[in-house]
Amino acid sequence: MNRQTKLAILADAAKYDASCASSGGERRDSLGGRGIGSTEGSGICHSYAPDGRCISLLKILLTNFCRYDCLYCVNRVSSNVPRARFSVHEVVDLTLDFYRRNCIEGLFLSSGIIRDPDYTMEQVVEVARQLRKVHDFRGYIHLKTIPDASPELLRRAGLYADRLSINVELPTLQGLQQLAPEKDATAIRRSMARIAIHIDDAQQAQREQRASTAKSLPQSRPRRAEAPRFAAGGQSTQMIVGADDADDRTILATSALLYGSYRLRRVYYSAFSPIPDASRSLPLAAPPLIREHRLYQADWLMRHYGFAHDEIVPSAQGGMLSLHVDPKLAWALAHRERFPVDLNRAPRELLLRVPGLGVRTVERLLAARRVRRLRSDDLRQLRLPLRKIMPFVVLADHRPGKVLQPQAVAVSVTAAAMAVPRQSSLFDELPSASASASHSLPLASVVP
Ligand code: SF4
After folding, report:
1. Please, which residues have CB within 8 angstroms of residue 181's CB and are 6 or more apart in sequence?
2. Residue to mutate, 62, 76, 85, 182, ligand 1, most ligand atoms under 8 Å from C-beta
3. pTM (2 decimals)?
């Protein structure tokens, strides 16, 4: 089998691994001389670095042979798909080739389990080792690690990779036992804990080294050897959504536990996608993609906005997030007694709960209100979604009126949230003062 065919198979097999924003993109190419560019560069996907940069990664499996039979996985042993396997040097060569041609900035490598977990993990680690040590590769490396692999292999993986991840696969233990009976939930958590300890140790060693280097200035003592790095980009995991009957409340509870226990950088949610020859234990249809999106929004609220996981999903909705309204707006509508919030006086924690205000905006508002009283114009200048914000806030020149009834406010704001998004044109008019006044939907009437 030639390398191109292997690449097509093993890049396609990796498309269900999250941490990539472009897998579902429309297929386009420039054959026939029309236009330039292609979305079919096998295995090249985009991911986001912690500082917000978008980076292109070569995302492939080392092999899609697998001796496990996880029911939700297209690569399971009983699946009838074409199989391929790269050697270590093939992956190294491909990565360097793509990198030199400026097609990628890094590698995302995962693998089916061949022979045994240690054998597979050794190959994955060897790819990273050769890239770093033999070729001095400075690009990004994300390794998907195998939970049953030995602690020593996990440790070595962290020396070469920027990020490590281990998939928890399903939100509950029962789900894992039912759909992936060969996977060991305890081994998954144990390996996550080991990685967390290695990351902590490396960070501590770096802090100590920085402190001792500072003390030794100006060159009064010889410099110490550089502290070893370990997965500086942290660890992440992925959960499949909609393959079992776990509700959103359960999924978010599991995420909160993982963030708290293993200090994960990210939990990725991957909507289950029906596969050929699927088991009868799996649903016939995929969950709506918007469910995955709502989970990401809720996850964001937990990580950056101070929401607890059990506040976000109301028990009244059968443990599910609303598909029609984003979780923050849904929370605000369910807690009208907390609004309107005075933007000139409220503490940061409360400002973060106002629909339409993001973390950066809140920082800007806090800075601005130190020198003057905030007015509607300040929000307008920040290009904020006034229709969403105004019913929930008090400003120097704005207080929600007393015209609409609670239900009307909910319907109006919800309708705005559900409006089909439209790309703004360069020549769209900015909202005028009178237009924005009409955005000022009244809220006082809904506050008891
Ligand atoms: S171990 Fe991984 S690759 Fe193998 S069947 Fe399970 S999910 Fe798929």
Report:
1. none
2. 76
3. 0.80
